[in-house]
Specification:
The complex is a heterodimer of chains A (163) and B (329).
Chain A lengths: L1 H22 L13 H12 L6 H15 L5 H15 L1 H5 L3 H25 L11 H28 L1
Helix pairs in contact in A: 1-2, 1-7, 2-4, 2-7, 3-4, 4-6, 6-7
Chain B lengths: L2 H9 L8 H7 L12 H24 L4 H11 L1 H20 L3 H39 L7 E7 L11 E4 L12 E3 L4 E8 L4 E5 L6 E6 L5 E6 L6 E7 L9 E4 L11 E9 L6 E8 L8 E7 L10 H8 L8
Antiparallel strand pairs in B: 1-12, 2-5, 3-4, 3-12, 4-5, 6-7, 6-9, 7-8, 8-11, 9-10, 10-11
The chains are: A mainly alpha (163), B alpha+beta (329).
Chain lengths: 163, 329
Amino acid sequence: MSSRRERLSTLLLVLTLALLLSLLPLPDALEPLRPYWTGLVLLYWALEVRGMVSLGMAFLVGLLLDVLSGSLMGLNALSLVVLIYLVQHFRARLRFFPPWQQALAVLGLLVNDHIIRLWIATLTGEPLPGWEYWLSPLVGMALWPWLFLLMDRVRAGRRQKKA
Amino acid sequence: MPGWAFRNWAGANPGGNTGRAGDRMARLSPTGSTRLFSPEGLRTARLMLYLLLCVVLMAMDQRGQYVPRMRAAFETMLEPVYHVVGLPSRIAGTVSEFSRSYAEVSAENEFLKDSLMRQAASVQQMQSLMEENRRLRALLDATTGRDFEYRFAEMVQVNLDPFSHQVIIDRGSADGVFTGQAVLDGSGVMGQVGDVRLHMSDVLLISDPDHALPVQLARTGLRTVAFGTGETTTLLLPNVPLQADVRPGDLLVTSGLGDRFPPGFPVAEIESVDRDNGETFAEVRARPLAALDRGREVLLVIPRAAVGGEIKDAATEIPQDAPEPGDGS
């Protein structure tokens, strides 16, 4: 039970960092390159630790992100709930992909997420964004293997410290 | 959703080389179909529930029911987060400020002195004009115009959802900011205050597709409404009559109708006028003068008591009549 608590505290710490990273201002030129930090972190934990990230948790984290980033209430919640649902559904398969294939799957998930966002944005009367809108999923894909290794280290590090 | 994919995949399991896939298989019902009360079915039901909740929330937020108020309450609690996030850019700003060379600073100083002199000259002229205006209005027995004060505010450097068309400024209800207050920058109208928190508030930019701004052409006095398009570089004026005298380069100022924005502030410059004979209205596009996507400093407009009248605005009462102990702001 306490190892579960340990893991939860690690997850919360990493999530807080991800939320801060997604709010951090960047120069205008780099802005479209910002990866979906919160989504990537939740994705890792849903994939690697069974039963860690529930749909309810994805929903709450999404609402928090909505409030913080000033987006339409429920937009990020919807995005994360769909993302985590898909990961849970294909978890067994995704876990045994080699890294590059997993990165491709992550790209697919992120593009899917961007399509949902675009759809909602057009429903609220926004014009279509430019091509640079699609850069963020690519950056997410490129980051995925490194993020994966980093997260593994963080998780292992916390576990060793405890032992 | 991919309920079907699960079934198809169960036959050809690529991950079958370990025990992990075993528990996956065990959860399949004998027929291979997904039942409502199997774990899989429950998850789908939960997904549907959360999706429904999200959609309801979004619809309510979009229509401005309940949700914005809830959001404002949360945001007040989360104010410290913005302070933390804004810290790196504040530090970077301070560092670059300190590392500027003497020559740069003195050149800027020279430039500022110069522009201050010019501004002062035009203000002097303004004052005599205002005096004259007031006399003429008194002669005509017309209502007197309103007078305004400005308060400086700085943007909090935080990345927000680009689709939300908002910026955060570092003044809140503690500084007398109120919802609907007009916000300008050095060159034009930026938007209006949305949610007000204790020490910060959101500013809704005029580029928001839901934003409509009553404007008037400075040259001809033609009144119309400027709508946001979602792009920070374009406003749309959809109901200008086909025969109206509008030319690219014309200045748009606020008309003061609607009681949100004070009249006479520059808003945008007409960029293109598209007269299609089949239509009732010309399609007019304008470019906002304010730096909607890159400014740092803004001005909040405080309506002062009407000149010569006894109507006092509640908003100005707050800082004057209730001087707090630490009234440094």
